Structures are given as C-alpha cells and as structure tokens.
C-alpha cells in the first residue's frame, strides 16, 4: 500500500473497486465514512450493491469478470478527454505514449464496453472525470480485483489511473491494496514467498543468498520455490519423482477448506506421504495430518504483526497458553533442531533483531521504536531515533524502480477461464461475511456469532432467478459446478444481478470451494475464486435436507473434537 490507512479520511475522491470494507475491514470502513462526512466523493465498483456502494457518489454495478474492460474504458476517457496530468507524466513516468495509443482505441470507448460490463457509458465517463478531478484521489481494492486469472494485470491497470492523473507521491493519494488477515502483510515481509527472503530480497540474487548463508551457516538453494497453489499438481500429476512433493508442513492454513476445488485437494492430501499441521485449532486439514502441533494463539504469545500499510506493531502476551501448546517460533526451533540444525533463541526480540540485521528495508524498526511511535512503517532503514519509518511511499514521485520512474503497461482484457454455459447457466463468485472469519476455526464455535449466521451458509441470488427456479428465500438448495456440489440456503436479494450468484467461503457444510476452480493468475498464482460457472437445483424434500445438514454439521464437529452443547 503506498499510503497509510488513516490518510483515507483526507481523501477528496475514493476509488473503491472489488473491495467490501464494511464486511471485511470495519475499521477501514469507518475511515471511509469519516472521509465522506468531510466531503469526499466515493466511486464504488462492485457487481453487488455493498454498503460502500450504497453511500457512493457513483456506484457502478459492473458485470463480474470484466474489470479490465472497465479500467481500460476509464483510461480511454482520461486520455481522449485530456484529463491527464502532462507535467507529472513527463517528469515521473515512462511508456505513456504507447499506453495512451492502446487505451484510446475505439473498442474502449465507454459506449463500446457498456454492453459487456453492464455499465452505463455516462456513468463510466462521470467516474473517470471525478477520479481525475483531484490530486487526493485514493484507490483501494481487494479480492474483487486480485482473485482472477487476470488479477495482477488489473492491479497494474488500477495503478495506471493514479499515475496518469498525478495521484502518487504526496499525502492522501496513491494506491491501497487492502490486505487480508491481520498479518498477511507480515508473512510476505518475512519472506514466506517462494521467490523472496525476508525484506523482499530475491532468492536468485547471489549476493543476498551469500549474506543469508553466512548468517545461518548453511548453503541455500538458488532457485525459486513452489507457490502453495501448485501443490496438487506436484503431488497428483508430476511424473518426475525428483520433483514430486512427499511432505507438506502446513502452518496456520486450512487448505482442506480454503483452497479451490476441494475434491482435488482431498485427493492431494490423501496422496502425500507426510502431512504436518501446526494450528491453534483442529481444522479440516488436520483430518489428513500424520502429526498435529498445537500452537498458541494471539494473546498467548509476544509477536509483531505488519498491517496492510507496512506498519509493524507489537502484540503482547496476556494469558498463559493451554498446557501442551507452544509458540509457533518454539515449535519451528524444535523442528529445526530435531532435523540436525540446532536453532535457539531466547525470545522474539532476538529473532526480530537478527532479521533486522539482514533486511535493509527494516533495519531501523526496533521494538523500542515500535512502542514509542505506535508502530513503525517500513521502509525504516536507520537505527537512529530520527528514522521513524515511512508514512507514504514514492515521496515526490520518485519510484522504487531502476530509473526512479513509474512505468505504464497496457493489457487487453482476458475473460474468466470458466464462463456460464447451458449446463451451468449462472456465475458464482465467492466472498466474505461479517460475522465469520475465513475457515471459521476462530469464529465457528462462538454462539453469539452462530446466531448471526450458521451452517450451511447461503447463496445470494436475484429474485428473478429464484422465481425461475421455483426457489423461495431460506430454502435449502443444491449448488453444482463441474468440480463438485454442495448444499446451502437461498438468500434472495436484489443487491445482486440476474444470472450472478455469491457464496461465502466460511462454511464447512455449505463449502463453496467444492465448486470453485483452480484456474490461476500466471504471475501471482492466485486462484480465480471470484468467477466460475454453476447451477442451482431445487430440493423437493426440505425436511429431509434440513436433517441431512444437521447430521453433516454434527459429524464434522465430532471429527474436529468440538463438544456440541444443545441450548
Ligand atoms: N469478517 C471477515 N473479515 C475478513 C475476512 C473474513 O473471512 N471475514 N477475511 C479477510 C481476508 S483473508 C481478506 S483477503 C479480506 C478480503 O476483503 P475483500 O477484498 O473485501 O473480500 P471479498 O468479499 O472476497 O471481495 C470483495 C468484493 O469483490 C466483489 N467482486 C466480485 N467479483 C468482482 C468483479 O468482477 N469485479 C469487481 N470490481 N468486484 C468484484 C465482491 O462482490 C465483494 O464485494 O477480508 C479480510 N477480512
Ligand atoms: N472460495 C474462496 N476461497 C478463498 C477465498 C475466497 O475469497 N473465496 N479467499 C482466500 C484468501 S484471501 C485467504 S487469505 C484464505 C484464508 O484461508 P486460511 O488461511 O486457510 O484461513 P484462516 O481462517 O485465515 O486461518 C488458517 C488457520 O490458521 C489458524 N491460526 C490462527 N492463528 C494462528 C496462529 O497464531 N498460529 C498457527 N499456527 N495457526 C493459527 C486457524 O485456526 C486456521 O485453521 O482463503 C482463501 N480461500
Ligand atoms: Mo486473504
């Protein structure tokens, strides 16, 4: 994220695309509301009418899977109506002329993309003019941009709009990919990526590799590792025994619930020789585990989390953990030691300081500074007290590229990999809901939250589709895709368009990942969770279906060792 979350309150225009802050990040949502109260204009682009869409100045109910067409149409208007910042483009960017020529093609005129994007051409023109009208336009996006086979290219297309209008490099402007979990930014910062060491240093860079080899007294491979989403392929389809995966050590992840195409994930987990799961609960993946390591949860250990705006924050231990549980770092030390590499640290600060000594971007972010300054935002390169970190990136529009400039790249639209067909006539997008968290280990056993929403979840459908299928609000329905099927409850709502359906991926019984496709973005290797084709079937015997759901739910809970108390 180039800016800091609090800056959103001083935005003049917020461009919100594929991101549902009121559900996913209520604290960010509050900043958006405060900005609006101060006069900020909001553009919201989402196929479903979200609460942000409801308070938006311009709400654009885009047809799912057409982000790039829309973004190129926005660029078309900016270029052809000459709304761009020529001075900024000349001083701080490269590649604009070629890019402008591409996006100015007739096929990107709002009138030309209106049919495919389901948008009104005038609304697109109004949105482009509003975006370009301010130097405090802040863009925020989420999974509605990234969870597509064309995710990365759409991120770049969003960035182009900010570059073209001079919306980079000063206070309350720039781009905000709003990240997922409290510490997903931290996992990337700390090198939990197949191509990076901590601090975004390349594993293919010899100098960097030698630095880590020297610090750890080991030799390290010079090739890029495998992304998570390639595991099924390397277990089920890899002919070369040297390249097959035989062991899978899973820390704080529940692929048997959160990965796409669960029937294939189950085949994968069953076929691997060794599965180790390290978690704070017995999750669905634990059913396939040979070994389970019980770890401590937040509040039971000291830690540092990075927020999505690059902010390291200290988190402290409040209570003693359950007997038998160890912190994640202690379990890792014991594993390393057992495997022949004695690893010892006295506390988390020692680990943190070692990391700082190896990562120039984070070198100055000491525990002390984090406490004094309510967190430290990287880059923070100097140990001296003067360097308190970086609130926003690219100050003065100096970019972190070799030539210091922002580069324009043009991409044509590529549709989602699986589209509606006569057999599967509806599109399925999978999203989040406010009362439950990802794989639901952390929220599923709380009665208050269960009162808000419970198994088997629901599928949001347009009233016209419900009527055509003879399904009423609240009915149990069967949802089927090429990969599998699941059972869930119909939620009739005119917030979604005809032909489009939405499920949340929080449910164990109504698990939408039985249906989703493992089509990946070639650059980020992120699955296309936001688009596949499905069909919804009416269930005639509702009473039997209710009994089946209850039985399935109880069986899963029993396997997970959850005591079911009737109240
Ligand atoms: N309560 C709660 N909060 C959470 C989570 C949770 O499980 N529960 N999960 C956390 C995690 S891991 C993450 S990554 C974040 C994610 O937070 P968000 O990015 O907000 O997540 P989603 O709800 O998956 O998707 C956002 C929006 O994209 C829209 N969308 C779908 N298809 C398209 C499309 O083609 N174009 C456009 N423009 N939009 C589209 C959806 O309608 C949805 O409103 O939330 C985090 N916060
Ligand atoms: N269909 C569909 N699927 C999706 C998505 C979608 O939009 N649609 N979104 C995707 C996204 S963005 C994400 S991030 C993933 C999330 O999916 P996951 O990462 O699988 O789910 P989480 O619930 O975030 O947590 C994973 C596990 O971490 C455990 N855990 C929590 N704290 C700790 C800890 O301190 N230590 C250890 N060792 N374990 C801990 C939890 O109990 C849980 O079992 O799902 C993805 N899957
Ligand atoms: Mo996420």
3D structure, described in words:
By secondary structure, the chain is α/β, with parallel strands linked by helices. The chain is built from 21 helices and 21 strands. The model has no long low-confidence stretch (mean pLDDT 96).
Percent of residues in helices comes to 25-40%
Report Rg.
24 Å
**Number of strand segments:** 21
Whole-number mean pLDDT: 96
The profile of the biggest β sheet is:
6 strands, mixed, barrel
Summarize the structure in short.
The chain has 21 helices and 21 strands. The chain has about 575 residues and is of the alpha/beta class.
How are the SSEs placed, and which strands pair?
Layout: E1 13-17, H1 21-24, H2 26-37, E2 41-45, H3 51-54, E3 58-60, H4 67-80, H5 86-92, E4 93-94, H6 96-103, H7 110-117, H8 121-132, E5 137-141, H9 143-146, H10 151-164, E6 174-177, H11 184-189, E7 196-197, E8 201-202, H12 206-216, H13 231-236, E9 247-251, H14 255-258, H15 262-271, E10 274-279, E11 291-294, E12 303-306, E13 311-315, H16 328-338, H17 348-358, H18 367-372, E14 376-377, E15 406-407, E16 426-431, H19 447-452, E17 458-461, H20 463-469, E18 476-480, E19 485-492, E20 500-504, E21 532-538, H21 542-559
Parallel strand pairs: 1-2, 1-5, 2-3, 4-15, 5-6, 9-10, 10-11, 16-20, 17-19
Antiparallel strand pairs: 7-8, 12-13, 13-14, 16-21, 17-20, 18-19, 18-21
Write a concise keyword list for the protein shown above.
single chain; 567 residues; alpha/beta; 32% helix; 16% strand; binds ligand MGD; binds molybdenum atom
């Amino acid at each position: 994220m180039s800016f800091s979350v609090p800056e959103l309150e001083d935005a003049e225009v917020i461009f919100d695309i594929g991101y549902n802050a009121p559900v996913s990040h209520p604290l960010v949502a509050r900043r958006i509301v405060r900005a609006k109260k101060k006069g900020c204009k909001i553009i919201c682009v989402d196929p479903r009418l979200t609460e942000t869409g409801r308070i938006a100045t311009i709400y654009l109910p885009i047809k799912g899977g057409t982000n790039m067409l829309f973004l190129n149409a926005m660029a078309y208007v900016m270029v052809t109506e000459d709304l761009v910042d020529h001075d900024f483009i000349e001083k701080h960017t490269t590649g604009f002329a070629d890019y402008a020529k591409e996006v100015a093609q007739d096929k990107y005129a709002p009138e030309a993309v209106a049919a495919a994007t389901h948008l009104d051409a005038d609304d697109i023109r109004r949105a482009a003019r509003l975006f370009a009208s301010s130097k405090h336009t802040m863009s925020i996006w989420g999974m509605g941009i990234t969870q597509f086979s064309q995710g990365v290219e759409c991120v770049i297309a969003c960035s182009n709009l900010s570059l073209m209008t001079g919306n980079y490099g000063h206070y309350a402007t720039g781009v905000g990919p709003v990240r997922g979990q409290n510490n997903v930014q931290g996992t990337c910062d700390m090198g939990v990526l197949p191509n990076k060491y901590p601090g975004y240093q390349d594993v293919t860079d010899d100098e960097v590799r030698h630095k880590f080899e020297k610090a750890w007294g080991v030799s390290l491979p010079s090739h890029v590792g495998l992304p998570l989403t390639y595991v099924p392929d390397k277990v089920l389809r890899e002919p070369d025994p040297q390249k097959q995966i035989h062991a899978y050590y899973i820390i704080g992840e529940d692929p048997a619930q959160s990965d796409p195409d669960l029937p294939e994930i189950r085949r994968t987990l069953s076929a691997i020789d060794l599965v180790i799961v390290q978690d704070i609960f017995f999750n669905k993946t634990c059913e396939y585990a040979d070994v389970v390591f019980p770890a401590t949860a937040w509040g039971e250990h000291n830690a540092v989390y990075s927020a999505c705006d690059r902010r390291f924050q200290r988190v402290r231990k409040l209570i003693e953990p359950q007997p038998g549980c160890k912190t994640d770092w202690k379990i890792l030390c014991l594993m390393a030691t057992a495997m022949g590499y004695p690893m010892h640290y006295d506390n988390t600060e020692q680990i943190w300081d070692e990391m700082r000594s190896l990562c120039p971007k984070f070198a100055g972010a000491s525990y002390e500074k984090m406490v004094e300054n309510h967190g430290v935002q990287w880059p923070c390169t100097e140990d001296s007290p003067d360097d308190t970190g970086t609130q926003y990136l690219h100050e003065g529009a100096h970019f972190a590229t070799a030539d210091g400039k922002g580069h324009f790249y043009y991409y044509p639209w590529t549709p989602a990999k699986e589209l509606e067909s006569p057999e599967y006539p509806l599109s399925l997008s999978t999203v989040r809901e406010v009362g439950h968290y990802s794989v639901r280990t952390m929220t599923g056993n709380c009665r208050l939250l269960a009162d808000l929403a419970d198994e088997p979840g629901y599928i949001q459908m347009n009233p016209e589709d419900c009527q055509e299928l003879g399904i009423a609000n609240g009915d149990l329905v069967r949802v089927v895709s090429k990969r599998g099927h699941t059972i869930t409850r119909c939620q009739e709502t005119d917030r979604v368009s005809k032909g489009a359906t939405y499920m949340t991926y929080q449910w164990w019984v109504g698990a939408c990942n039985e249906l989703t496709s493992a089509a990946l973005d070639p650059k980020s290797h992120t699955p296309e969770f936001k688009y596949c084709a499905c069909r919804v079937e009416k269930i005639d015997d509702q009473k039997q279906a209710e009994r089946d759901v209850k039985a399935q739910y109880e069986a899963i809970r029993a396997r997970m060792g959850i005591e079911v108390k009737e109240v």
